[in-house]
Amino acid sequence: MDTIVIAGGIPERNDPLFAFSQGRPKAMINIQGQPMICWVLNGLADAKLVDNLIVVGIDSVAEQGEIQQRVKQSLTFLPNKGGLVNNGLAGLEHVYHMHGRHVPVIGCSSDIPHMQGYMVDDLIGRCQPLDRVLYYAVITPETMQSAYPNADRTYANFRGEKLTGCDIFVSNTRILHTNQKLWQAMINARKNPLAMAWQIGFGSLLRLALRRMSLDDAARLAGEKLEDEQPIGLVYSPYAELAMDGDKPHQIEILREPRGMNPAAKQ
Question: What pTM value is reported for the model?
Fold first, then answer.
């Protein structure tokens, strides 16, 4: 499967992460001696079920060279389209035209450097038979807190359980032809479960607020709102590393700890 890595965000001076990025893309923040995105890309390159690696959002030729020099696999760079959603769309369009048909694809952020290849292969295995337009991976609080007790993650309260989302997902390029307005709004609200429920509808918002919505209900409603024939696929991952991103300064410091780093990425 081809993988699209979104890497275009540049923290501004009023962003707490500016102290780490100093005007460069967030993906270039130093983690254990190299840009954060290099750990991500080498983790993906180690996955047996990953093929082409496509990076969207790094426009500097110098930064592209710095990344490629540290990554064991040849990369394709696509220009920054001005935001998370537009960059994701550009990657999907590229994969679709490359194959000339709709195919499964992996989407991944550039700020989960503790991810390793076997975790990606495990996720793909859990998404079989790959017949949904989108598979969204979730992590339980117990899994997250046992690995990263100070991560300060946001959890959604469903009926009977709390969950947080991963920063890697499996999709199909036919998502390009679903309700783009909705999933763009969902992506923009991805850090706020109540805001995401609002996009699905007021009733969903109320049910989530009252903890009466089940995970199956959420998957079915999301599929309906995306105007697809099936619910989205929800899969549990046992690997907290897939959700441990660097959105806040203290999270960057956690990620700078050499937990489970792929030694091959240092070559």
Answer: 0.84
